Every structure is written in C-alpha cells, then in structure tokens.
User: Fold Protein-L-isoaspartate O-methyltransferase from Streptomyces qinzhouensis.
Amino acid sequence: MTAPDRDRSARRKVLRTLLDSGALAPDWVPSFEAVPRSAFLPDLMWPFGMDTGTSISVSRSDDSDTWYEYADADVPVVTQWDDGAHAGTEPGRLSTSSASMPSVVARMLRDLDVRPGARVLEIGTGTGWNAALLSHRLGAANVVTVEVDAVVAEAARARLAAVGLHPEVVIGDGLLGHPDGAPYDRIIATVGIRDLPYAWVQQVRPGGLIVAPWGTRYSNVDCVVRLVVAEDGQSASGTFTGAVEFMKARSQRYRVDQAAYLPHGFPGGAVTTVTNLTAADLGLDDRLRHPFAAVSGLLAGGCTLLADRRGPAVSAWLYSLTDLSWAAAVLTDGQAESTVYESGPRRLWGELSRAHQWWVEAGRPDPTCFGLTVTADTTAAWFHASGNALPLPLSEHGGSSGKPVRISRG
Ligand SMILES: C[S@@+](CC[C@H](N)C(=O)[O-])C[C@H]1O[C@@H](n2cnc3c(N)ncnc32)[C@H](O)[C@@H]1O
Assistant:
C-alpha cells in the first residue's frame, strides 16, 4: 500500500470511530474529511504514546508508512520542544507545541457550537490544523488565530496557505486576545489555561461562547470549560465538558521548587499521621479518566500534587501555593494504611482527605457537575448550579499580571 492510500483508509477509520463515539459532531465531518491532519505535520515529529507516557521520533523521509500511521492516529503529536531551543531528532525536555489528539480537537469543536459565518478567535495556532478546520467550516475571513511563537506561527501560515486557506495568523500573546478583530462570536483556546483572561470575556459578544482547557495548579489536568458570556457582557459562566491535558500557556507554566520546602531535608520537623486513602482512590495512575483526579484541583485548592509511581508504590507529595507547607506519603498497592508526613501551618493531607470525603458524599461527581464563573475580579468554581458552594476555601497566587487570582466557592 502506498503512503497516500494508507493515509486515506486510516483517516476514514479514525473519523468513523470519532463519529461513532460522539466526539465528532456530524456537521463537522465534511471539514475533517477535507482537511487532513497530515497536511499540517512536519517531516520530523514526535507522536506521544498515551499508554507509555513517552514520545518517539518519526521521520516521513525515513519511514513514510509509520509517519502516516501516527499522523492519522488518535494521538497527540509533538512538533516543538523547549520553545524551539531543542535540536536533534530525539525528544526534548518539555513539549511546547503539538497537534492535539483528533478526538480532543473534535470534542472541543463540538462544544464550540458554531454555524457558518460565525467569527472565531483561536488561541494557540500550533500546527494550524484546528484553524484550518475552522476556516473550512466558517470561511477563513471569519477566523483569527494567535500564536506566541513566531517560528511556529510562520510554519502554520505556510501550511495553511499550501492547502488554500488564509485565516489571519497573529504572532502575539493570546492571553490578551486580539482586540482588533473583536467582537467575536466564539473564542477557543487550544492551550492549557490556569488564569482565564478577562480580556476574552470582553472580546466575545453577549451570548457568545468561550471554550478553553482550564485548571488549577493542583495538577496538569485541565477541564474543558464552556462559558457563555452574560447579556450585560460583564461576566461569563458555564460548566465543564470533560477532562483533558494540554501544554500550558507559556506565561502560565508552573514548576514547584521542591528544595525550598525542605531546607533541612526529609522529614525535617514533619508530624506523622496515618491515611487509608490509596493511589486508586486518588486516581494517581489515571488522572484524566478517574473522576476524583479530574476534579480534585477544584476541591483541594492552593496546592500542587506531584506523584511518582515506582513498581507497586506511588510517592505522593503536596506542596502549598500559599506558604511552605508540604505533605508526603508513599501509597503501596494492597496496603490499607500509609504513613503521612506533614509540615507547616497547613495540614495538606488533611485538606485532601476532606476533599475526597466531600466528593464521595456528593456522589462521586465528574467534571460535568462543576462549572466556572469569570468576572473582572474573580474566577469562581461551583458545583451543579452557580449558587452551590464547594467544601473548602481555595486560593491560588499567579497569573501573568502577578495579581492574586481568587478562586472562590459558590
Ligand atoms: C497544543 S498546541 C495548539 C494546537 C493547535 N491548535 C493545532 O491545531 O495544531 C498549543 C500552542 O499554543 C501556543 N501558546 C502557548 N502559549 C501561548 C500564548 N500565550 N498565546 C498564544 N499561543 C500560545 C504554543 O506555542 C503552542 O503552539
């Protein structure tokens, strides 16, 4: 089978699977058929194995069959490492641009609920594939896409032009939106957001939608939020549609300096308690599909979780974002109880345990039971309906403005 034949049959199979699973809305099928992801991928690319958690190098000039196999598969494909500083064929340290999984692209476009003629601003051009799908469906004159990395943006512009599509590609910080083209009917972000910019609310018309992967700094998990801009244009509110994991907006990446929490080594002056929570209870091995793992960033606020599995044991560390409190436990499969070490004014494992208890008593809700309201001053997470409070006070510090971002409950 030649590469183009293989391309066509594999693509048809993936599209059928996406349609059958409900990820791909029927009105998007013509665009997915007309605009192949392979037209937006570079010769050298790094498909990411969802099961292995690692990327491999694949070159079209060396092995075109394998290259097309991955181009058409439902996997994310990394196209840039380390903001472009990485050279060579092996994967780099941090993936910084990619073509997202086709199922995720399809789901987010379904959530966007657009009709031909709608004006859309995309944040995170990446390869340009999503902008191409939007342009095919809505007309390129209705699509603006913003990319922070000039090299990535130029490559996307060239690939879009090669398939005859010419949306406006803007090089800049998408967290500012693109006021020159406002108001938009929709904004879609294809990059993970920790502090949702109010500029986006201001640039979407009343009744319009913002679809974005949003999360707290508890973990790398994002939940896709679908916000409707209020009639007075002052706020936006809506529920989450599911858990995903995107690379984070450049200025909102977050890395804990673990050494700062343990200046005198482990366990320092930590106190010990016992937990009966297990790695399975917390979803530490399955962060996107486990409903507690997907929502725990909303419930256990103001801290970051780092978990590392070695054989039957998972080391779980919690670091406070409001002071230097920390907690740690080694959770071994099949073991009913584990020792917990906690240090500092906050008892972080206690907070996580109470969040888990609340979640169990609330009927183990998944992300679709929660939502977000964004105003000029606050981002507030809620449960079921915007009047319903969540169990714990939650605050984080961050944001590109350096301004404290309050995540309040209810
Ligand atoms: C997952 S990729 C986007 C995938 C893309 N939509 C596609 O179809 O291939 C995320 C992109 O967001 C870009 N990005 C990160 N921070 C950004 C920001 N503040 N503004 C605009 N783009 C940003 C990254 O450089 C990267 O190219």
